[in-house]
Design a protein that fits this description.
The chain has 362 residues and is an alpha/beta fold. The protein has 14 helices and seven strands.
Length: 362
């Protein structure tokens, strides 16, 4: 009798790792389908989990140097040795001729492993008489290896698209803006503040941040122009109603206002052109690990982020903006996984918008 689940050998499973390491397009296609738990060995499971997490954060595959750094964080020597051996095998087969076949069989592998795990889990459930749970697990396992969500089915989901969850908004604090934006800013929306220099774009963003804090939200404010302390003083001024120049003479009022606001704020400064979109994502992950997952993200301002080109012409800016757009879309995809509450507010000058649209500078 064939051993349960032995259709896909250890060698095959390790070549699946080779496939995801060598083909980013393939990894993107199976990202939502492949699970680390489908792999039999703990070492393979650790590698797949690490690779997919890195891909999720940076949208590229980890290099061998990156994986070495990750492996050095493993505390158990036995697991570390096993991971190294598995990685050596996978790395040595990045160009194997049978990787095309391996990729074709991945969906069957996912279904096979999912059913196998469901059957194994059913043993204890059977003893407890939880037959409905067993049936549910098996039915779910039978669907493994396929993405059942085809999108918004227009005719059958009329009610769903008018539910509050479709666009959960937060008021801006300005009635006229809330009226124009149908209640405020919604999750996953990219809001651009455009105006000539000196009009008050930065102050507007601070007011947006303060209003979110008053609603109990956590705000991440990235400043690539003003320093952290001065940006913090602007929040103090809006919260307390005291002018910036008089804040140090009214510290008690400032402390009281800050302590009474239910939300929280983290201000992070990056020198001009030193931070990329991935830098901000990495910082947000750090905030999340420390229990301060941001609800609202403010970038002041987008043009000072480091892009792929140092040129200043319109074509260069459009190319750089693609990095920003990818970040915006990525945030929307992860909502379904772990970043559902993030909103993005960014600022550009009117001149930058005109350049982006291809207009002249006149």
């Amino acid at each position: 009798m064939e051993k349960l689940g032995s259709k896909f050998s250890t060698s095959f499973q390790n070549k699946v790792i080779s496939a995801i390491l060598s083909d980013r397009s393939f990894t993107r296609q199976i990202y939502d389908i492949l699970k680390a738990e489908y792999f039999d060995s703990e070492a393979s499971e650790w590698l797949v989990k690490t690779i997919l997490k890195y891909f999720d954060e940076y949208e590229t595959m980890p290099t061998l140097d990156v994986l070495k750094v990750k492996i050095n964080t493993i505390e158990r020597d036995v697991l570390k040795v096993s991971v190294v051996d598995t990685l050596k095998f996978a790395w040595n087969h990045l160009s194997s001729d049978d990787l095309v076949y391996v990729k074709e069989q991945v969906l069957d592998f996912c279904k096979n492993q999912s059913i196998k795990n469901a059957i194994l889990d059913s043993v204890s459930l059977l003893e407890d008489g939880k037959y409905e749970t067993i049936k549910k697990n098996i039915d779910t396992a039978m669907k493994a290896g396929q993405d059942s969500d085809i999108g918004h089915e227009y005719k059958s989901m009329i009610v769903e698209r008018y539910e509050d969850s479709v666009r959960n908004v937060v008021s801006t604090g300005w009635d006229v803006i809330d009226e124009i934006t149908q209640g405020g800013f919604g999750k996953g929306e990219l809001i651009l503040f455009a105006a000539p220099p000196g009009i008050g774009k930065s102050w507007s963003l601070v007011n947006i941040g303060v209003n979110a804090m008053k609603k109990g939200k956590i705000v991440a404010h990235y400043t690539l122009e003003l320093n952290e302390g001065y940006t913090g003083q602007r929040y103090d001024a809006v919260l307390s109603g005291v002018a910036v120049g008089n804040l140090k003479y009214n510290m008690e009022d400032v402390k009281k206002a800050v302590e009474n606001v239910p939300g929280d704020l983290v201000v992070k400064h990056y020198p001009t052109k030193t931070a990329s979109v991935n830098s901000l994502k990495a910082h947000m992950d750090k905030m999340t690990l420390q229990g301060k997952k941001p609800d609202l993200v403010i970038v002041d301002y987008a043009d000072l982020l480091r892009g792929p080109s140092k040129e200043r012409d319109t074509r260069s800016w459009k190319k750089s903006s693609k990095t920003l757009e990818v970040w915006q879309v990525s945030m929307k995809f992860q909502y379904s996984r772990h970043l559902k509450s993030i909103e993005v507010v960014q600022k550009m000058t009117l001149l930058q918008v005109r350049r982006l649209l291809g207009h002249s500078q006149k």
